[in-house]
């Protein structure tokens, strides 16, 4: 037994500390070239600045296309923003990048250890692509593949959302596919850029997404313009050339750039995903909120996996257990999200009558109350003979 003494048993969870905040880290798969001793096609790289990118062979001289998009990312997001990047050959289609049976985007996400929450895909146009639905035919194929890949990783608690470059727009709005008829609720298509090329400004979009909290809309006007001077569709024409069709393009769930009368610069239009209006995840923002809440709840509840569950004399779950689990989930989600304005509220509910003895299952219900958005503002204005209070 040793000598008599006093022992202290120090609790490690008395402060109710929160789990780590879940950041919206972006990943990018993009056309590029191997640079000896610096970067190889198919190799995952984690970078934090444009200088890091240059040190890894993503330069104007060696990888001008990738450099342009990485520079746009850091011009908006700033130095120290985390970015995972992989180069793909110029023969690699975006659908091949996204294929869950392949080893491109799938490898990047695995190599990042699940840190990536938004993935951009972009291929440099060669000008000989087949056209379908008003775009490079590969765009729609990539959307299907990317949704399947995102679904697979969500089941592994590596949830992410994707944004695809809407290459080679023909300029004919009627030809664009109506994505309210599909169910790709983890995927978006960007149809615009700032330089008149055939590819969308994916680097800029990722920079914007990485710089805002999960509930923030891509197009929040108060955050300021994302481009000061020029905005184009991927057919090379300025976005103003299709002003009369903006509503139609938006109603088909594409993201592009727009301007506002009396305000300088250009803004993203919205953040729709490729699904119908009745889908809760028809916007990237709703999706990012849910992904973050899932990861926080998982990090809390996984600690309880395999735990002994005390029960009452009637065989139901002991109220103390229910209270502790509910409090842990709510305090972490509210502390990491509600208190930051990312949610309006959170409630966790556990049915105390659940037969845990015979089923070995604890059923947990988490209710998330999202924030609202002023998407449409209706103003009633007119002259009057008197002002009423």
UniProtKB/TrEMBL annotation:
<dbReference type="InterPro" id="IPR019694">
    <property type="entry name" value="Phage_HP1_Orf23"/>
</dbReference>
<dbReference type="Pfam" id="PF10758">
    <property type="entry name" value="DUF2586"/>
</dbReference>
<protein>
    <submittedName>
        <fullName>DUF2586 family protein</fullName>
    </submittedName>
</protein>
